[in-house]
Amino acid sequence: MRLLRPVQACDMPFSNPHGRFPAHDGPGTGAAASPYRPGGALDATTPSRDGTADAAPGDGAVARCDDLHRRYGRGANAVHALRGVTVAFAPGTFTAVMGPSGSGKTTLLHCVAGMDRPTSGTVWWGPTEVSRLRERRLAELRRAEVGFVFQSFNLMPAMTVEQNVTLPGRLAGRPPERTAVREALRQVGLGGRERHRPGQLSGGQQQRVAIARALVSRPRVLFADEPTGALDRRTGMEILSLLRAGVEEQGQTCVMVTHDPVAAGYADRVVVLADGVIVDDLDRPSAAAVSARLSRLGG
Ligand code: ADP
Ligand code: MG
């Protein structure tokens, strides 16, 4: 298990070209109006910005899994999608998960995000062992603690932007405050688009709506499964910059699956999966180093 120190803004090669995120002013302050929240509601102790946690269980990791296995099917037809994955995500870090197609990236994300149950192994969000929770409690906690962004946006076409952003909360019986929705949309650069429908927006704008939807509940971790996979390169970079800015300026923790070594360059760390196990864990590798590593895997 490995934890990274949170990245300082001055370390980062990518800045936020839009300037849409207010400066981070420390855990526990200034976060009320922001969809980003350093730390999370589960923590008895809030990790500090230098990456040390005050005795928080799980080494201060925002999310982690231990010896995760996920098998689909049984007997001769069984597919072992995950075969013993142990990984921890430190607060305020941006991790890219990479690996060949079929290596278990989506399965890992779904299991750690509480959207799928591992066959064995444990998942923790802060001090809470998620993999033990009953379905109802898990669903409640997932809505509060986890944001998820999909490659295909997964917006409801008949609903307005605002209705899409509020939908998960409304389904949970806890609609977000209108001001929180406006703020989330403003921060992804979509202020004033509340009444548009997804079909009236570009792909990049639709993914921004999906990010606002994921962040409006101020989750402790944002998971994104190939969030730029359906976008052209320039639009994809804008989305990556947006995710990066949330990490840098708001202390958001982000875990993103990507195929693209350039996209991985926005992350602090690249975890490489092959055949259901982690085969590498790289600290800010160059795009060239990532490409070389992946080509050795045939991915
Ligand atoms: P990746 O995201 O890296 O492409 P996945 O996590 O989607 O990989 O899949 C890992 C393996 O598990 C693949 O062999 C895939 O076919 C299999 N798999 C994924 N989901 C299911 C499922 N619902 N039923 C059966 N097999 C599955
Ligand atoms: Mg996948």
Tell me the count of domains: 1
Structural class: alpha/beta
Give me the CATH fold name.
Rossmann fold
Strand order of the largest sheet: 6-7-8-3-9-10
Which shape, going by the Cα principal axes?
Answer: globular
| Assigned CATH class | Alpha Beta
Q: How big is the Rg?
A: 18 Å
SSE ordering:
EEEHEEHEHHHEHEHEEH
Major pleated sheet: 6 strands, mixed
Portion in beta strands: 15-25%
How many beta-strand runs? 10
Bound molecules: adenosine-5'-diphosphate, magnesium ion
How many helices does DSSP assign?
Answer: 8
Question: Helical content, roughly?
Answer: 25-40%
Q: Any idea what the CATH architecture is?
A: 3-Layer(aba) Sandwich
Question: How confident is the prediction overall: mean pLDDT?
Answer: 83
Query: Could you name the ranges where pLDDT drops below 50 across 5 or more consecutive residues?
Result: 1-57
Distance between the termini: 24 Å
CATH superfamily: P-loop containing nucleotide triphosphate hydrolases
List the helices and strands and how they pair.
Elements: E1 63-72, E2 79-89, E3 94-98, H1 105-112, E4 120-125, E5 128-129, H2 135-145, E6 146-149, H3 161-171, H4 178-187, H5 203-215, E7 221-225, H6 233-250, E8 253-257, H7 261-264, E9 269-274, E10 277-283, H8 287-297
Parallel strand pairs: 3-8, 3-9, 6-7, 7-8
Antiparallel strand pairs: 1-2, 1-4, 4-5, 9-10
Helix pairs in contact: 3-5, 4-5, 5-6
The structure holds adenosine-5'-diphosphate and magnesium ion.
Describe the structure.
There is one protein chain. The chain is an alpha/beta fold. The protein is 29% helix and 20% strand. The chain has a single domain (31-37, 54-297), classed as P-loop containing nucleotide triphosphate hydrolases (Rossmann fold, 3-Layer(aba) Sandwich), CATH 3.40.50. The strands form two sheets. The chain has a six-stranded mixed sheet with strand order 6-7-8-3-9-10, with helices on both faces. The protein has a four-stranded antiparallel sheet with strand order 2-1-4-5, with helices on one face. Helix 5 (203-215) packs parallel to helix 6. The two termini are 24 Å apart. Magnesium ion (MG) binds at residues 105-106.
